[in-house]
Amino acid sequence: MPCASWEGVDAAELAARCGVPAAHLHARVDSTNDVARSLADEGAPHGTLVLSEAQAAGRGRAGRAWASPPGLGLWLSLVLRPAPGAGAPELLPLRVGLGAALGIETAAGEGAARLKWPNDVLLGERKVAGVLCEATWSVGRAPSFVAGIGVNVLHRPADFPPELRDTATSIAAATGRAPDRVALLSAIVAHVLRLVDAPAGPLGPEVLAGIARRDALRGRAVLVSDPATGRATLHGTALGIAADGALLLRTEAGVLRRVLSGSVRPTGADVGAAVAPDHILPANP
Ligand code: BT5
After folding, report:
1. Is the per-residue pLDDT at 160 higher than 90?
2. Distance 44 CA to ligand 1 centre (A)
3. What pairs with residue 221 in β-bridges?
4. Which pTM does this prediction carry?
5. Ligand 1 first shell, C-beta below 6 A
């Protein structure tokens, strides 16, 4: 069921404050990505925003659940229709993740957010936001994308389900301050739309530097696994993110490996200073 306003702001004003053509507001949906997908299929323009106060079936990658209780977060999706010849779709999650991080920093402090490849935003070591980009290609039509972003904003630790209490945080829990959700939403949307409006080719210097500055994995020993099966696929030291979006790893045998998809977690043994902070990240090392 659509609703007329959110946080006392009506849909037209919210759209204007976010700089988007339309804002679709809901009290509860299964997933804002599904609502945005339907709108995209009906021709909704680039930047169309879907926001729901709660999600009954919020999801992450590989069918994982995303906890989306009412009143505590930002559960939103944007319809994206990149211009013909725009940057590669596989780079969208990284651009969207950086945009979410920059928006979160308007509330948490510049440089506070960290990015864990491919799609997590952390405050400290805990996940504050996640990104889920989904694409639709149909014959004879330009592809359209939905970028889903979930941000934990006002949760106290006890508001998280027990299984997330050791790994999740909210902006309020991490900073001790409850941000204005409207200001936060408009900052995130503005950063994301600016960053996805990118020319063709690899990630540019601004995005690469923004990601490198916030890279939560660089210099750490990590384990890569298949998100669908959980099976470990690779172990190594994270060197950074390449311009084509790959996570660069150096294996114990000293071989450079490029990881294009997967779930990653640090295994504890950091090497820190062994990786130069200005490590060069070409698209094809
Ligand atoms: C993600 O997946 O992190 C992407 C999450 C995207 C959520 C948004 S909300 C709006 C839009 N509509 C949707 O239905 N989805 C998008 P992944 O990397 O697969 O991480 C999922 C994992 O994060 C889960 O298996 C949990 O371990 C953890 N998790 C679930 N809910 C969380 C939360 N609220 N905060 C922190 N961690 C959470």
Report:
1. yes
2. 25
3. 237
4. 0.93
5. 31-33, 55, 58-61, 64-68, 75-77, 119-120, 127, 130-132, 148-150, 152, 164, 168
